[in-house]
From TrEMBL:
The keyword DNA-binding applies. Keywords: DNA-binding, Transcription, Transcription regulation. Coiled coil: none annotated. The lineage of its organism: Bacteria, Bacillati, Actinomycetota, Actinomycetes, Propionibacteriales. GO terms for molecular function: DNA-binding transcription factor activity; transcription cis-regulatory region binding. InterPro entries: Homeodomain-like_sf (IPR009057), HTH-type_TetR-like_transc_reg (IPR050109), HTH_TetR (IPR001647). This is TetR family transcriptional regulator. Residues 40-59 bind DNA.
Length: 214
């Protein structure tokens, strides 16, 4: 029997997490109401009832306040590859993980709701930041694929495979955003994107369906 338990957080750490979440929540509320570019750090600090320095201690950049799940997003494709069961190709693992994310209407996959999605679309800064996160996610995927096949991270075959697989996820993420901004509810979006996702992955199946299985 597995007797492993997770140690409870100390009061100090718990307080820090609560403060971080409070700042993030207040920042998001203001960004949606006023616009990202128009909202200042001072306004966020006032709304969260903390010092301006506290905000910058928790969030190094203003963009981090709006996109505070960056690490999970960047690592998502690589994690799907590294955690896949033996014998399953990276392609199959990524396709399966995408299907699960759509079924769960996961915000990391793009199901962020109309207000949040519109906030990003209306902000040049956040649009550029999101594009950079897609690039970082593809790079992390390339590193995971390289480790899987025993190649260097700059191996052209690995980079090409990561680029193609990353592009499918990028396009489908953008599709979810488009449908969200068009006013469709998440449940309907999930149904549409599940079918479109299958068609998109089918395009890559002939060349990447078995890559790599080792």
């Amino acid at each position: 029997m597995d007797t492993t338990t997770t140690a409870p957080l100390g009061l100090r750490e718990l307080k820090k997490q609560e403060t971080r979440q409070l700042i993030s929540d207040q920042a998001t509320r203001l960004f949606i109401a006023q616009g990202f570019e128009e909202t200042t750090i001072a306004e966020i600090a006032d709304a969260a009832r903390v010092a301006k320095k506290t905000v910058t201690n928790y969030f190094a950049r203003k963009e981090d306040l709006a996109l505070d799940h960056q690490a999970a997003f960047v690592a998502s494709l690589a994690d799907a590859v590294t955690s896949r069961p033996a014998g399953e190709s990276a392609y199959a693992a990524l396709r399966r993980a995408f299907g699960s994310a759509v079924a769960a209407q996961d915000p990391v996959a793009g199901f962020a709701g109309p207000e949040f999605t519109r906030m990003i679309a209306n902000s040049p800064t956040l649009t550029v930041c999101l594009r950079s996160l897609h690039d970082q996610r593809e790079q992390a995927l390339a590193a995971a694929l390289a480790e899987t096949v025993g190649a260097e991270p700059d191996d052209i075959a690995v980079r090409t495979a990561a680029g193609l697989l990353g592009t499918v996820h990028r396009i489908l993420f953008q599709r979810i955003q488009e449908l969200t901004l068009a006013g469709l509810p998440n449940a309907e979006i999930a149904g549409i994107v599940a079918e479109e996702g299958n068609r998109a992955f089918d395009v890559l199946a002939p060349s990447l369906g078995d890559y790599p299985t080792t």
